[in-house]
Design brief:
Length: 378
C-alpha cells in the first residue's frame, strides 16, 4: 500500500566555508534548503539524492501543512511503498545553489555588500551544484549514496556525480536527460532569457532596487518553456482547437491552449525569480562533460563505477530519446553496466513527472534491486 510521507519541514543548512566555483568566482558562505524523507540506516548506506530540474526545488514529496492540497513535485514516486520507497531509503532533496526557494541565490543578501546579490550572483554550473551537494552529503554523514536520481536537468546532475565523485554513488538513474544541449535547445533558452531581459521592469537584473519584478518577461519565458515540455500529441488531446468562449475575452484569449499558457506563465512569474531563471538556463547551456569536444563521452565515462539506468520518452522532443541513447552508447563503449528503456508516452518531456504504469514498474524494480544489493542479496 502506498501513501504520502505526510507533513515535512524543510531545513535550512548553513555552510560557512567558501565554495570555489567552476567559472572563477567563489561564494564566501551559503545556505541550502533541504528536505529529507525516511530514516538513515545506522551504517548510512541507504541514502538517495533526488536532483531537481529547472523549476523544481527541495519540496519533492509530502506536504508542508495540513491545509495544503499541493504535494511535492515528485510525490507520486517518493514515499512508503513507492518507487523511491521511504520505508527502505533515506531520501535527500535540496534547492540548488542559485535557486529561489531558500537556498543562497540572487535573492539572498551578499555578505560583502549587505544588499541582495541580484545580477551580481556568480555564474553557477552543474559541477558547482554537485560539489555543493557533496558537501551536503558530508554534513549529513553520508559517504556514499545508494543512488542519485534525477529527470531532465536533474539527470544531468546525476551524470556529473558519476564522473566527479565515482566512488560516492552505487547507482545513477538518469531520466529524460542529455549529455549536452543542442543548438536548438540553447536557442529556446535564449529566447526565454531575452523575454526577461527585455521586460521594462528588469532594470539589468536590479529590479529589487525598484520594488518591481519583470513578471511579463518571466511569464513569457515560462510559456515558451512549457511549449517545449509538451508533445504535439499531448497538446492536441488536452486542448485541440477548442474555444472556451464564443468570442475573445478582454485580453484577447480565445483558444483553450492560449488560456492555459497564460495561466501557467502568470502563476510561474509570481514565485520564480527572474535572475534565477537566467542563471539556471545558463547552467543548462554550458553543461558538457566533454568540455566542448576536447575529449569524448566514452573517455569521460571510463572513470565511472556505478550502475546506470537511463530512461527516455518517445515524444520528448526537448531532450529526445536519441540524446539519452548517446549516454547509453558511451557507457557501453566504456564497458560500464547500463540498462536502458525507451518508454512509450504521449506526454513529451514532462513525462518524467507524470504517473505511468510501465515507467513506475521499471523505476521501482531498479530501486528494489539497489535495496537488495545493499543487503547483499543476489
Amino acid at each position: 500500500m502506498t501513501s504520502s510521507v505526510g507533513i515535512v519541514i524543510p531545513e535550512l543548512i548553513a555552510f560557512e566555508t567558501a565554495l570555489d566555483l567552476e567559472r572563477g568566482r567563489s561564494l564566501p558562505r551559503y545556505d541550502l534548503m533541504v528536505e529529507t524523507y525516511g530514516t538513515l540506516d545506522a551504517d548510512k548506506n541507504n541514502a538517495v539524492l533526488v536532483c531537481h530540474a529547472l523549476s523544481g526545488d527541495h519540496h519533492a514529496a509530502g506536504y508542508h501543512d495540513t491545509e495544503s492540497n499541493k504535494p511535492g513535485w515528485w510525490d507520486h514516486y517518493i514515499g512508503p511503498g513507492k518507487c523511491i520507497d521511504t520505508d527502505l531509503f533515506f531520501v535527500v532533496s535540496l534547492n540548488n545553489l542559485g535557486g529561489c526557494s531558500g537556498s543562497t541565490g540572487p535573492l539572498s543578501i551578499n555578505p560583502v555588500t549587505g544588499k541582495a546579490y541580484g545580477p551580481d550572483f556568480p555564474e553557477i554550473t552543474i559541477l558547482d551544484w554537485v560539489h555543493a551537494q557533496a558537501r551536503l552529503a558530508d554534513h549529513l554523514g553520508i559517504e556514499k549514496f545508494a543512488a542519485i536520481v534525477g529527470g531532465s536537468l536533474g539527470g544531468m546532475q546525476a551524470l556529473q556525480w558519476s564522473i566527479t565523485y565515482p566512488d560516492r554513488l552505487a547507482a545513477a538513474l538518469i531520466i529524460a536527460a542529455t549529455p549536452r544541449l543542442t543548438a536548438q535547445n540553447i536557442a529556446f533558452n535564449e529566447v526565454a532569457r531575452q523575454a526577461i531581459i527585455r521586460d521594462p521592469n528588469f532594470f539589468d537584473g536590479n529590479y529589487a532596487d525598484y520594488d518591481v519584478i519583470p513578471a511579463s518577461g518571466v511569464s513569457l519565458a515560462r510559456m515558451v518553456g512549457h511549449i517545449t515540455y509538451l508533445s504535439d500529441i499531448a497538446m492536441g488531446k488536452k486542448f485541440g482547437r477548442s474555444l472556451p468562449r464564443d468570442d475573445h475575452d478582454a485580453n484577447g484569449v480565445n483558444f483553450a491552449v492560449e488560456q492555459y499558457l497564460r495561466y501557467q506563465g502568470q502563476q510561474f512569474s509570481g514565485h520564480f525569480d527572474a535572475n534565477t531563471y537566467i542563471l539556471m538556463t545558463r547552467a543548462l547551456d554550458y553543461f558538457d562533460p566533454t568540455k566542448n569536444g576536447l575529449t569524448t563521452l566514452p573517455n569521460v565515462l571510463k572513470s565511472t563505477v556505478c550502475k546506470f539506468l537511463i530512461l527516455s520518452f518517445t515524444t520528448d522532443w526537448r531532450f529526445s530519446p536519441s540524446r539519452s541513447e548517446e549516454i547509453v552508447d558511451a557507457l557501453i563503449q566504456a564497458d560500464k553496466q547500463v540498462s536502458y528503456t525507451r518508454l512509450e508516452s504521449a506526454h513529451g518531456h514532462d513525462a518524467f513527472l507524470i504517473p505511468d504504469a510501465t515507467y513506475e514498474r521499471i523505476f521501482k524494480a531498479f530501486m528494489n534491486r539497489i535495496h537488495l544489493d545493499l543487503r547483499g542479496v543476489q
